[in-house]
Amino acid sequence: MKSSLKNSSLMPTFLLRSFPSPKYVCSQPQAPIPQNPNPNTKFQEKITSDSHFPSKPISDSNFPRKLILLHSKDPNSTLSLTQHTSLNQTHVINTLLRHKNYPESALKYFLSVEKKLASVQSIDVFCVMLHILVGSPQTYKRVQYLLNNRFVSGDLGPAPVVFLDHLIDTRKRFDFELDSRVFNYLLNSYARVNRINDAVDCFNGMIDRDIVPWIPFMNILLTTLVRTNLTDKARECYDKMVSMGVRGDCFTVKVMMRAFLKEGKPWEAEEFFREAKARGTELDGAVYSVVIQAACQKPDLNMASELLREMRDRGWVPSEGTFTIVIGAFLKQGNLAEALRLKDEMLSCGSPLNLVVATSLMKGYCKQRDIDSAFDLFNKIKEDGLTPEEVTYTVLIEWCCRNRNVKKAYELYAEMKLMDIQPTIFNVNSLIRGFLETCSLKDATNLFDEAAESGIANVFTYNIFLYHFCKDGKLNEACSLWQRMVGNGLVPSIVSYNHMILAYCRAGSMDMAHNVFSEMLERGFKPNVITYSTLMDGHFSKGDAEQALGVFDEMVGVHIAPSDFTFNIIINGLSKVGHTSEARDMLKTFVDKGFIPICMTYNSIINGLVKGGAMNSALGVYREMCESGISPNVVTYTTLVNGFCKSNNMDLALKMHYEMKSKGLQLDVPAFSALIDGFCKKRDMVRACELFSELQQFGLSPNKIVYSSMISGFRNVNNMEAANDLQKKMIKEGIPCDLQIYTTLIDGFLREGKLLSASDLYSEMLAKGIVPDLVTYTVLLNGLCKKGQLENAYNILDEMNRKGITPNVLIYNALIARHFKEGNLEEALRLHNEMLDRGLVPDDTTYDILVNGKAKAESSLSGVSCA
C-alpha cells in the first residue's frame, strides 16, 4: 500500500508564475496554480480559485440543481435510489458501488439517505462516496463540497488519522483506483477552516503513510501555521516534506522565509533564499522582497542594495513596501544620502511618497541637526495632500525640544490639537523637558498642571520635574511634588526614588538619603547601580570616603555590578578628599576588572594631585594618560595650567597652553582664565593683556573671573585707571560687578589716596544691594587709617557693630597704629584691651606696634592690606 501511494507518477506538476514583462510585485502573491492535468492521470487537474480554493463552503441551496438530478443511464438507478426499507451500512455501500461509474447518481442517492445514515454511524459509507466522486474529473468539486460542508466544518467525526485509515482501507476493500487527491483535499479542508491541529495531524498521518501532500496544499498549511505564529510546527512540517524529497516551490520559499523572520532569525531566511536559488527554484519578486526585508533586519544593507539591483535587472519593480523598508534601514544606520537616493528612485518607479518614508526622512534630517530640511519636507507633504499623523508630529516635537527650539515644538503641539490629533503624554513629556532645559519654568509648570489635571500625567511626567528640582538642590519643591504624585494615585518608580536620593545627597542630608533608600527596599524595589552610585557620590561630597566605600562594598555584596559611572565616582571622590594615591591604586584594580578609563577618570586624579601641590605626579599621570592612547581634553590642560601657575612655574604653564592649541582643541574661557590669573599674580600685565586679547580673538567673551583677575592685576601694579576702565567695560557688556571686584577697586583707590573715588564706588556698591563683608570693611578701615581719616574709620566701625560683624586683628592693628602715630597712646591701649576682650589673639604686627610705639607705627601701616 505505502509503496503504491508514493508513486511519483501520482504527483501533479505545477505551472510556476513568471513575469514576462515588468509589473508591480504584490506583497502577498497567490498560491501557485497547478498545470492542466495529464489525461492519463485521473487525479491531476487544474486547481483554480473558483474550484478547489473556495472562499467559503458551498451551501445546499447553492449546490447546482442539475448535479443532483439523475443523469444515469443505469436502468436500475431509480429503484436503487428509492428503496430505503432495508437501510444499513452494507446496503448503502452496495448501492453506492453499483453506481460507481455514475458518480452523480451515487451522490444523489447519498444525499437522499444522508440523514438516516447518521444513525448508522459509519465513516466507511462517506469514504466510499469520496472515492467514487474522486474517480471522475466532473465531480472533483463535489469532494471538496462534501468535506467542507458535511465533515470538516463541524467538530464531529473521527480523528484525522482514523479518517485516513478508513480512506485507505475502503480503497483496498472495494478496489478503487489509487488516487491521492482525496487525501490532499482532506488536508486542504482542515487548513481552510482553521482546524489547525487536525490539519497538522492529517499532514503527519499522510507522511507516515507515505502519501505525499501536494505542494499547493502544503503551502496553505504552512501559511496558516506561520500566520498563527506556530512557526515551530511549520518548520517541522517542512522538514518532513524535505525528508520525502519535496522542497516545494517559490511560494514555499516565501512562506518559510517569513517564518524565520517572525522568529527574529533573518540570517536563516537569507540562507534559505540562497539554498533555494542554488537549487534552481524559480523565484519571483515577492520572494526577493522578503529576503530584502531579512537583509535590512540583520542589517546587511550592502546585500539589500544588491538584491534591489538584481530585481531591477530581472525587470521587476520593487513595491512601495520594499522601498519603505530599505529606506528605513538606511536611515537607522545614519545614511541619509542613500535613503534620499532610494526615495527618488521609488518616486521614479511610480510609487508615491508615503507618510512612513516622509516621517523617517524627517527623523533622519533631525538626527543630523538639519531641522530646516525636516520642516521643508513636512511642509511639502502637506502641500502634496498627505495628512501628517501623530508619529510625524511626535518626531518633530521631540527633535525641536532636543535642539532647544521649544517655541516651534509648542506650535506643532497646538497644530496637532487643531487637526483633532490628540497629543500623547510622550509629546507632553518632551515639551516639559524642553521647557525645563531652556529655563522656561513657568511654561513647563503650566503644561505639567494641565496634564496632571486632565489625568494623563504619568510617573515619567513627574520624574522629569522631580529630576529638575533634585539636581538643582530644590529639596522642598521635590518633596512637595513627591506628595502630589503619590496623592494622585501614581506609584513612584525606581527612577523616582533615585531622584529623591539625589536631592538629599545634593542637600548634604545623607541620613534622609538613606531613609529613602530603606523605604525603597520596604516597597519591594531593588536598588540599581545608579542608586548606590548616587549614595557614594553624596558621601564623597561630604568628605566621608569611608562611608562611600562602605556603600560600594554593600553594592558588590548584593551582586550588582559596578558601572563605569561608579568607578569614575570612586576615583573622583577619592581624589576630591585628598586620597589621590588610593585613587590611583583603585584605578589599577578597576582596570584589571575590565574598566576602561576615560579622559574624565584621569582628569579627576590630575585635579587631586594639583590641589595637593604634587605637580610632578600630576605631570606623570598626564604622560601615563597619553601613553594609554587617551587624548587629554581642555579640562586636562586647564587643570595643569592652573597648577603650574599656582606653583609659580609659568614656563610650564605656557608650554601646556601652546600644546593645547597645537592639538587643535577648542579652547574655552577657563583655559585662558587660569593663565591670565597666573600672570596677573606675577604682576606681568603685558603677558596678561596679550592673553586677554587672544581670548577675544578666539571669539570668546571674558567672564567675571577673567575681569576680576585683570582688575586685581592692574591694582597690584598701581594702574587704577586701567582697572577702572575694565570695570566700566564689563558693566557695559552686561556682566555684573560683584563684591570682590568692588573691594579690589576700593582698595586700589584708597592706596592711591583717592578717597572720593573709593567713597563713590562704596556708595554704588551699596545702591546695588551688595552687602560688604569683613574683607571689604578691613580694606576701608585700613585705607582710612592710613590717610588719617579716623572719624570716618570709626563710622565704618560703628556700621560693623550695628550689623554684628566683629572687627578682625587687621582692623585693630590699623586703628592702634594710627593712634600711636598721632600720639594717642591711651586710645591705642584701650583698643588693644578691647581686642583681647573680644577674644582676638594679637599677631606679630600688633606686638611690633605696641613695643616700638609711634616710631614703628608708620612703617607697620605700610604692610596692612588684605584685598
TrEMBL record:
UniProt-recorded Gene Ontology molecular function terms: mRNA binding
PPR repeats by residue range: 179-213, 249-283, 284-318, 319-353, 354-388, 389-423, 458-492, 493-527, 528-562, 563-597, 598-632, 633-667, 668-702, 703-737, 738-772, 773-807, 808-842
Transmembrane regions: none
InterPro entries xref list: PPR_rpt (IPR002885), TPR-like_helical_dom_sf (IPR011990)
Similarity comment: family membership: Belongs to the PPR family. P subfamily.
Entry-linked NCBIfam families: PPR
Full protein name: Pentatricopeptide repeat-containing protein At3g54980, mitochondrial-like
